[in-house]
Amino acid sequence: MSLHRISVIGTGYLGATHAAGMAELGHEVIGVDSDPARIGALAEGRVPFHEPGLPELLAKHVASGRLQFTTSLKEAAERADTHFICVGTPQGPDGAADVSHIHAVIDQLVPMLTTPTLIVGKSTVPVGTAQALMERIARIAKPGVEVDLAWNPEFLREGYAVKDTLHPNRLVIGATTPDAEWTLRDLYQGPIAEGVPVVVTDLPTSELVKVAANAFLATKISFINSMAELCEATGADVTLLADALGHDERIGRRFLNSGLGFGGGCLPKDIRALVARADELGRPESVRFLRDMDEINQRRRDRIVEMAAASVGSFRGVKIAVLGASFKPDSDDVRDSPALDVAIRLQEAGAFVTIYDPAANLTARAIAPTLRFAANALTACRKADLVLHLTEWAEFGELDPAAVGDVVRRKVLIDARNALDVHRWQDADWVVHAPGRSLDALDKHAERVSRDGGHRHVHDAKMPEGCEATTRRSPQEISDDGRAQPTEA
Ligand code: UGA
User: Fold this and answer.
1) Does residue 99's CB lie within 6 angstroms of at least one atom of ligand 1?
2) What percent of the residues of the chain are helix, what percent strand, and what percent coil, each to the nearest 5?
3) Is residue 481 scored above 80 in pLDDT?
4) For 318-344, what is the mean pLDDT?
């Protein structure tokens, strides 16, 4: 592998992690952002958001001198010969992705280039963007200076960004020249030598892979949430349904966790952008189903508010403790967070809401300053009439139901993420509700098992040989996305 001098333009979740990751892979990296506060923090080795493992990696490479930061695109143009574009493509008013930040970078950067250069897009863009950028680059590049463009979409998950950057599950390289492909293969020689598969494609395929992957994941989540609606209508249990479905390797258990649905800066935005792009392409029918996925997902938030209303009657004067504000655990990101959305709606309906999130209190307060924030879960729950579990941080799974029971006014819990061991809470005399689960029925069944077989709960009952109780999970069954998985058959 040769040492490459690269720039990473845009230092949000994606860019900051990519910059540190590329330094770890042995390259000389300069990170560029127009926000001086962000660049100031990163240059001092401080990560301005919560991402496990990133502060250590950043500090290591700022100290080694392999990773530097600047607000000057000119400096990056002079120092690097490969430029990764990691700027945001936010949702526009009609749902389409706004690519104006990418255009602005290209328009400034390209005329400053004086030597052969590769520009690599990593931002999530509507299919067709790269082709249009190639034409734009050809128009504005200095005569005689070769500027090539490749697309290399990013699949990292917040909370696992460092791992996903250094050990991705695949590398997708959209390239139109052998040189561009070779440069990217050389840049990623570390992961490629570990056996990470490389898929080389044309530009439109590489753009589409990214949004198609997110659309598929969103569909999987909405599918199980639509089943949760049927479970509620029939008395079936969606968590057992997901476990049973997941044992089929063609389906798989991951991303079949039902509850409050998906949020964040990617899945909701990307399905809407794909719908908008299909409209522009004259193929609205191809992804019409994604509108349904979006609706099913939005209904999850309504459902949890409904369940809260059903357990307290009127919200006026009722005190509700909300556990979790971020859109998922191990993140302080509250963009389109289902948890924060529900908390705000409950407050608007008249409840006194106190919220606690292990990392997102500050980011949530910036959006919802009138909510009350607590320094820990027990303080949030003090004198509560209802406790809502809205983001499945590991520390909420470790709460002692008896200790929480000592501080609340009423022991009523809604596990909106279907992630807690509800039987532990029921054993401590909590009334527990969970979307897509009929816990009363489950408890009656458990009592029957208890009477017949001397066991308290169905998951403790001795199963016939060859069967396994999938409601009780050992630590090994917890996947790296922090959710319980069924054991392999
Ligand atoms: C997502 C993709 O998973 C990444 O592969 C992709 O690179 C990234 O978007 C991106 O486009 O940059 P991320 O937004 O970090 O990653 O979050 P996910 O782990 O996908 O979770 C998204 C939402 O779905 C969360 O609100 C989570 O709580 C919810 N979810 C996830 C469920 O409701 N059920 C599940 O089974 C899994």
Assistant:
1) no
2) 45, 15, 40
3) no
4) 98
Question: Ligand 1 pocket check: which of 262, 341, 485 to mutate, most ligand atoms within 8 Å of Cβ?
Answer: 262
Structure-block tokens of residue 43: 């240059």
Q: Is 184 in the pocket of ligand 1 (CB under 6 A)?
A: no
DSSP letter for each residue of 116-162: -EEEEE-S---TTHHHHHHHHHHHHSPTT--EEEEE----PPTTSHH
* CA–CA dist 453, 446 (Å, integer): 10
CATH classification at residue 294:
3.40.50.720
* Surface-to-core class of residue 302, CB atoms within 10 Å of its CB (0-12 exposed, 13-18 middle, 19+ buried): exposed
Q: Is 266 a catalytic residue?
A: yes
Q: Which entry of 86, 231, 266, 381 is annotated as an active-site residue?
A: 266
pLDDT at 426 over 60: yes
The ligand 1 atom at the shortest distance from the C-alpha of residue 329 is 28
Q: Residue for token digits 């209802």?
A: 386
What is the rounded CA–CA span in Å between residue 349 and residue 337? Answer: 18
Which pLDDT score is estimated for 441?
54
Instruction: Check residue 438 and give its pLDDT.
Output: 84
Name the residue of 49, 124, 157 whose CB sits within 8 Å of the most ligand 1 atoms, as the mutation to test its pocket. 157
Ligand 1, atom 3, lies closest to the CA of 157
Segments forming the whole domain that contains residue 113: 5-201
Cα dist from 280 to 101, 156, 210, whole Å = 20, 28, 18
Query: Which residue owns the Cα nearest ligand 1 atom 17?
Result: 157
d(CA 251, CA 305): 30
Instruction: Answer yes or no: do 255 and 136 share one domain.
Output: no
The residue from 142, 169, 201 where one domain ends is 201
- Count of beta carbons in the 10 Å neighbourhood of residue 336: 17
- Per the structure, the count of domains in the chain is 2
Angle, helices 36-43/54-64, rounded to nearest 10 degrees: 80
